[in-house]
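Ticket #4471: structure output looks truncated?

Reporter: J.K.
Steps to reproduce: submitted the chain below (439 residues) through the standard prediction queue, then opened the result file.
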Amino acid sequence: MSKILEKVVWIQLAEYLETNNILPEFQSGFRKGYSTTTALLDVSDNIIAAQDNGMCTILVLLDFSRAFDCIDLSLLLSKMVYYGFETDTVSWFRSFLTGRGQCVEIVQEDGRMRRSAYCTLKRGAPQGTILSPLLFVLYTTDIIGCIQNCKYHLYADDLQVYISFKASEWACAVRSLNEDLDRIQRWSQNNCLVLNPAKTKYIVFGSKYQLNSVPLDCQVKLGSESVERVYEARSLGVDLDPNLRYENYISGVVRSCFYRLKVLYKVRQYLNERLRIQLVESLVLSKLNYGDTVYGPCLYTKTGNLIQRVQNACARFCFSIPPRGHVTPFLNEHNILKIEYRRKLHLACLLFQVIKSQAPKYLFSKLKWSKGRCAERKQRFLQLSTQRHKSTAFRGSFRYAATRCWNNIPPPVKSAQTKLTFKNRLKCFLMEAQKGKYL
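Returned output as attached by the reporter:
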């Protein structure tokens, strides 16, 4: 019953926060239509656009230590009052959050359980509850007031702060960045949250020529502590490198996929074809699906071929194809899209949702529509306008990849009223393209 009640309250709380525009525009945690993927797309697109304009970007990945456990409950309730929650609502949350206790259980050598005395919790959102993540998002809403010089993106307790600059102006940019970081640290102290300088990292993005003009140590500081510069940083599950080519990240994912496939081969003889396909989709190819709309447009051809090798190996596992046998006929026979077309399908479905709901706003605002007659502008299947750019690196940006993807979709597919209909029509269209290309 508690989970059902929490879900009902969560729906009402989320609706209140959205209706009253309380959440920051660049907060992507636990919101309908938002995800880690949309957050990564926004940040990477801005970095690539800056690089196209001849600028480098410093991205700082801030780490909060035990963020959910450090919430000051009285301060959280005060913020709810500030944001206009009614007295009865605040009282309900006070009852829900306070008066909780915890203890420690230890299994002794003789197998008997020993339990400590209960200790009343004075801080922290309850672990494992449906409401806690959204309450943390509400708790940190006002942190954006500290970020005055830089851009930012939040996903729950993951905060990314970044600033773009001409390579010759790096010192001024770092000074502005440090000012924001200092304000963020003071806000954290005032709100009982703890930033961990040891786990906070920064990475510099740009072309090789641009990066050569930036010193190795940019003197990025969090309070009195220096922040470590890294050349590969994990952000929301994806490893970012200075050129945003994702080579090391893809290599790691591919190794993991082949290892999982190797394990599946041990039980292959006990599985029918249908089960093999299901296991491969859920345990192997699912690792390639995550973030593919982010890294897909940026890949070198050789990196893309490496990913296709994984699918080819999966097809041989599922359909008992000989080592030198062609994989494509089997994929076509079973209506399975190749990796390249799968990425197009995923990006197009995301685009359809963004265009239809106009959310997240930070992605929708990146799309520019081709000019046409007023009657045409109202139709969702209008073409997007390709934005001017100076370098080939810009083709890895969301705005370029999205425009190219959307404009290649035929109007009958775009005119679908639901995402499911759109996805089914587009998959049929892509399958026909794949089969035609093979023939």
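Triage note (M.O.): checked the attachment and the full token line is present. The chain has three domains: 1-240, 247-334, 345-435.
Status: closed, working as intended.
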